[in-house]
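quick one
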Amino acid sequence: MKLAHKLLFVLCPMLVLGFICYSSGKLHFYVWGQKPLFDKQGFLLNPDIKLPPELVYQYGNLSEGACKPGYAAAKMTAIYPKFSKPASMFLDRNFRRLAKVSNYLPPFGFKTQERIIDSILTETKNYGLPELDGLSCKRCVIVGNGGILSNKSLGSRIDEYDVVVRLNEAPVNGYTRDVGSRTTLRITYPEGAIQKPERYEKDSIFVFSAFKPLDFKWLRQMVLKKDLQGTEGFWKSVARFVPRDPSEIRILNPYFIQEAAFQFIGLPQNNGLMGRGNIPTLGTVAITMALHNCDEVAVAGFGYDMNAPHAPLHYYETVKMSAIKESWTHNISKEKEFLRKLVKANVITDLTNGILTF
Ligand SMILES: *[C@@H]1O[C@H](CO)[C@@H](O)[C@H](O)[C@H]1NC(C)=O
Ligand SMILES: *[C@@H]1O[C@H](CO)[C@@H](O)[C@H](O)[C@H]1NC(C)=O
Ligand SMILES: *[C@@H]1O[C@H](CO)[C@@H](O)[C@H](O)[C@H]1NC(C)=O
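structure w/ 2-acetamido-2-deoxy-beta-D-glucopyranose:
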């Protein structure tokens, strides 16, 4: 009798604990010998990727092919319950209130750069996307720079999106059949920016993404149309003039770099400092931004076929795949694991099918 009591005394709390673990579904522990429910990053291992009933009901009324409000965020939440949608695309005058980024140095936050950011925002005076912010449903496509875009004639399909995001120096002229002709946002860091002013497209918003403190100094000079004083500290030559009015320049919220690195991909925290293999690529940063700010998200030009060393690395250069170097800053294979989760669960649509293929 006494033994049975003791046994109950031990068993009860264990059962209760087990039940809590099981029902909360947030912990990735083994539950009574079952396989873990979540991976280390907090993504469901065997996602039941059904939409919530209220969305099924809402989308049921939409005509075939219409933009589905809240679709990407709902799909993301289904595989990653921690996902919280609100995160503004760009920094605005209230940027100091962004708690998650105020305590991190670049690239994961803006600590130490507050004054220079203030001076930049005073000039740019615009912190949103006037025409697009009003849309009730936005479809975004992130056009990566991969050679996989070549000869697929996806240009007209890409141009149908409300927001076409391009990265760094990726050209449009001469490649419109494959990559489209519209550019809504061009996201760049100094070393990646187009250097020849005549190569900029007519109208696109220049979105700056900072990876190091020095980058903000560069941006201030570009906004003020002033000369750069020295270029030491950049790892390659940088643009010295950006042919954009200050009102056409934005600062990307560094939260997307932080979230992509530490939450989504699971790169080393390194005390919140830039370190070996903990910087996400700009493409994944752009996808992260889109998950928070677009209703539907597509990508094109992502995925490198490492088994085809002679295939072109970028759609606009003859540099071959074999030239890709082991990167100190990025962790391409870990990043790919994350992108695969998104494509597999239909959170994003991959127009060139490179993410699951390679
Ligand atoms: C869908 O359409 C039906 C019939 O027109 C209507 O009764 C219902 O309220 C609509 N649902 C939504 C979410 O708009
Ligand atoms: C694309 O097509 C052109 C012309 O047919 C060809 O020269 C080129 O090698 C092709 N590029 C790729 C990446 O297949
Ligand atoms: C990428 O991540 C894997 C797994 O965590 C690790 O073994 C590898 O060393 C990392 N590569 C780089 C370049 O940091």
